[in-house]
Design brief:
Low-confidence stretches: 1-7
CATH architecture of the largest domain: 2-Layer Sandwich
Order of helices and strands: EHHEHEHEEEEHHHHH
Number of domains: 2
Helix content: 40-55%
Strand order of the largest sheet: 1-7-2-3-6-5-4
Largest sheet: 7 strands, mixed
CATH topology of the largest domain: Beta Polymerase, domain 2
Mean pLDDT: 88
Structural class: alpha/beta
CATH superfamily of the largest domain: Beta Polymerase, domain 2
CATH class of the largest domain: Alpha Beta
Number of helices: 9
Radius of gyration: 22 Å
Strand content: 15-25%
Number of strands: 7
Length: 265
C-alpha cells in the first residue's frame, strides 16, 4: 500500500476510503458506515483516524483506531449512545469496556474488523491533530498539524532500565526466576523506548511498535536479550541488555549493575 503523510486533513474522506486497497475492504466498509453515522449525528463534530490505516501501512489484520469529537454539552448523552453507535456500523461479535459512561470501546465485528472507538470533548481539541487523518471536521477544530508536547523524559527511561536490570540480578540471587524474567522484559521495553527516541522515531513511548511501524532499525544484538525461565540464561540476557544500555549512558550505577550481573557468570 502506498505510504501517505502521517499528518493529513482529507479534502474528501469518502474518496480516500474508496481508494483503499481490496485487502482492507472490510475495514473500509466499517469506516464508510462510521463516517455516515457521524455525519448524521450533529453531536459529533469531528472524526479522526490514526494507526496503520492513517499511515497507509494497513493490511487485512489491521484494526481501526478512531476518535470522535463530541460537542461538550452533548458529551454525556453521546456516551450513553456510544454502544449503539458502534453497533450501527457493523455486527459486533463482542464489545469490550461497554460500561455506563465509558468513553472508549473496543469492538470485535463478526467480519473480523476490530474498531477502537474513543469519544472526546471538542474542548479537548487544540486546533490540531498529531499523527492522525481527519475524516470529518465540521468546525475546523482539527485544522492544521501541531505536535503534542512530549510527555516523557528519555533520561527516565534509561534510569528505569538500569533499575530493572539491577532487580533482575537481585531476583536471580533470591532464586525468584519469574520476577527476574518480568524485570528483564521491562528493561528491554525501556531500552527500546530510549532507542526509538534517540533515532528520531515518532511516538517513541510505544517502543518496539513505533520502531517497526516507522521502519526504524532495532538495536544490534537485541535478540540476545531474550531469555527463557532459566537462571543462567536470564543472567546472560540481562548482561547483553546492560551492554546495549551502556552504549547510550552508563555511569557508576550502570557499572555496578554490570559488575553484579557478571559476578556469577
Amino acid at each position: 500500500m502506498t505510504e501517505i503523510p502521517y499528518h493529513r486533513q482529507l479534502a474528501d474522506a469518502r474518496e480516500w476510503i474508496n481508494g483503499l486497497p481490496r485487502d482492507v475492504a472490510a475495514q473500509a466498509g466499517v469506516l464508510t458506515r462510521l463516517l455516515e453515522r457521524a455525519e448524521n449525528d450533529q453531536r459529533i463534530r469531528a472524526v479522526s483516524l490514526e494507526g496503520s490505516m492513517a499511515r497507509g501501512g494497513a493490511d487485512e489484520l489491521s484494526d481501526l483506531d478512531t476518535r470522535i469529537w463530541v460537542a461538550d454539552d452533548e458529551f454525556d448523552s453521546m456516551l450513553v449512545d456510544l454502544p449503539s453507535f458502534a453497533r450501527a456500523v457493523g455486527v459486533p461479535l463482542d464489545i469490550l469496556f461497554e460500561t455506563p459512561g465509558s468513553h472508549f470501546l473496543f469492538v470485535q465485528y463478526v467480519d473480523g474488523v476490530q474498531l477502537e472507538l474513543l469519544a472526546l470533548r471538542t474542548s479537548e481539541a487544540t486546533g490540531a491533530v498529531s499523527g492522525e487523518l481527519v475524516l470529518m471536521d465540521r468546525d475546523g477544530r482539527l485544522r492544521g498539524v501541531e505536535e503534542a508536547p512530549v510527555p516523557w523524559d528519555m533520561n527516565l527511561w534509561l534510569g528505569w532500565a538500569w533499575m530493572r536490570l539491577f532487580d533482575v540480578e537481585k531476583y536471580l540471587r533470591r532464586g525468584v526466576l519469574w520476577r527476574a524474567l518480568i524485570k528483564l522484559e521491562e528493561a528491554r521495553t525501556l531500552l527500546l523506548r530510549h532507542h526509538a527516541a534517540t533515532t528520531g522515531i515518532p511516538e517513541p513511548q510505544l517502543g518496539l511498535t513505533s520502531i517497526l511501524n516507522f521502519q526504524g532499525t532495532l538495536p544490534t544484538r537485541l535478540e540476545e536479550t531474550v531469555a527463557g525461565l532459566d537462571a543462567v540464561d536470564l543472567r546472560r540476557a540481562a548482561s547483553v541488555c546492560a551492554e546495549l544500555l551502556s552504549k547510550y549512558e552508563g555511569g557508576p550505577f550502570g557499572d555496578l549493575v554490570q559488575a553484579r550481573l557478571a559476578a556469577r557468570n
